[in-house]
TrEMBL record:
Residues 13-211 form the Aminoglycoside phosphotransferase domain. This is Aminoglycoside phosphotransferase. The keyword Transferase applies. The keyword Manganese does not apply. It comes from the Bacteria. GO terms for molecular function: transferase activity. Keywords: Transferase. SUPFAM superfamilies: Protein kinase-like (PK-like).
Length: 249
């Protein structure tokens, strides 16, 4: 009998692994719909969908190992990061999916709301929040739309022999800002940005990527806290915000 491994579990979603099968149970049925459609459309390696019966989605495990883990230095080679950059560029250059994502005004409103919560609850020094809010403003410009993954965490990209063999967790895919994907992947791995961009292409806007490091860390913090995760763990979102604030002084 195979053991059941709980990968992640909170009030919105649970992901279980049994052998080579992942079972995702989500209270929002649209997430599974988006995930299945996005994996069908994305021109990059994605997991195989085994079956779907609301609210559950079963997908096959992908080979290889994750590019890294937030809060820990990535042990993947520069060649693996370049391969990740090339794969992401292929995604961003693909035809847009037939559904929209948040626009800059929506993102700005969300950012202001989350900064207000962070200030009210004093989870970080006010000057760190204010400095990062200023940095994040550079991301809030009219962006050219790309096919984006939307939650391209380092643990969602799998590589084997310096090749990308799978990208998982597509429930946030949409039309959006390509720089946000690049920022999410390098969050806490800032020293690997140039390796990534050597595969992606030199037209990436590094200033906007850095702005998205601040923006994503600010907007994710409350959700992480309320769902039992720790953004103050070493190398995670609060460390990113502190580092960005120091650099801005």
């Amino acid at each position: 009998m195979e053991d059941v491994e709980v990968i992640v579990a909170h009030s919105q979603r649970a992901t279980l692994r049994v052998g080579d099968v992942f079972l995702k149970v989500d209270g929002d049925l649209e997430h599974a719909e988006v995930e299945v459609q996005a994996m069908c459309l994305a021109p990059v390696p994605t997991p195989t969908v085994l079956w779907r019966e609301a609210p559950a989605l079963a997908i096959a495990a992908v080979p290889g190992r994750a590019l890294g883990k937030l809060g820990e230095p990535s042990s993947a080679s520069p060649a693996a990061w370049r391969a990740a950059g090339a794969a992401i560029r292929t995604l961003h250059d693909a035809p847009l999916p037939p559904w929209s994502g948040p626009d800059p005004d929506e993102v700005a409103a969300d950012l202001d709301r989350e900064c207000g919560w962070l200030l009210d609850h004093a989870v970080l020094p006010a000057d760190v929040i204010h400095r990062n809010r200023e940095i994040a403003a550079a991301a809030l410009r009219p962006w050219p739309l790309s096919f984006v993954h939307g939650d391209l965490q380092i643990s969602h990209v799998f590589v084997d022999h310096d090749e990308v063999v799978g990208i998982i967790d597509w429930s946030e895919a949409s039309c959006g800002d390509a720089m946000a994907d690049l920022a999410t992947l390098t969050l806490g791995q800032e020293d690997r940005l140039e390796d990534l961009l050597s595969g992606y292409g030199d037209d990436a806007d590094r200033d906007v990527i850095r702005a998205w490091w601040s923006l994503r860390s600010l907007t994710a913090a409350r959700w992480l806290i309320e769902h039992g995760f720790d953004p103050d763990a070493p190398g995670c979102e609060f460390d990113v915000l502190r580092a960005r604030a120091r650099e801005a002084r």
